[in-house]
Amino acid sequence: MSDTNPDPADLLPPPAAAVLAEPPASASPVSVDPPPADPPKPARSRKPVFARVLQACAYGAINAVAEVPADEIKAAKADGLVDDNPDAVAYAKSLAAGEAA
């Protein structure tokens, strides 16, 4: 063979193990910053909201006046469990007092 012809082994790509080996020394290390911390969540209000119970549930029997935590009232109303309208609460109180018509 002639000295001017390259060795066929030199024309092949490097083996996979060599490709996956350490990066060249000239490569700069990648700086990975940790993800930002989640902002603190505001404290949920536990102040009760008076509501008339529309369905027997964890809040009480039908037509009872329940003290529903403020952070639960929206979901309870959406589920049709309670009504926090002042007129509804007054009606439920009147039922409890035996004044209902």
At a glance:
The chain is α+β, with helices and mostly antiparallel strands. Helix content is 29%, strand content 13%.
What this model shows, in words?
The protein has 101 residues and is an alpha+beta fold. The protein has a domain at 48-97. Helices cover 29% and strands 13% of the residues. The protein has four helices and three strands. Strands 2-1-3 form a three-stranded antiparallel sheet. It is rod-shaped. It starts with 7 loop residues before the first helix and ends with a helix. The mean pLDDT is 80.
Describe the largest sheet.
3 strands, antiparallel
- Taking the alpha carbons of the first and last residues, their distance comes to 115 Å
Number of strands: 3
**Overall mean confidence score, pLDDT:** 80
Beta-strand residue fraction: 5-15%
Shape: rod-shaped
Poorly predicted spans: none
Set out the fold topology.
Blueprint: H1 8-11, H2 16-19, E1 48-53, E2 65-69, H3 70-78, E3 82-83, H4 86-97
Antiparallel strand pairs: 1-2, 1-3
Provide tags for this entry.
single chain; three-stranded antiparallel sheet; 3 strands; 4 helices; alpha+beta; 101 residues
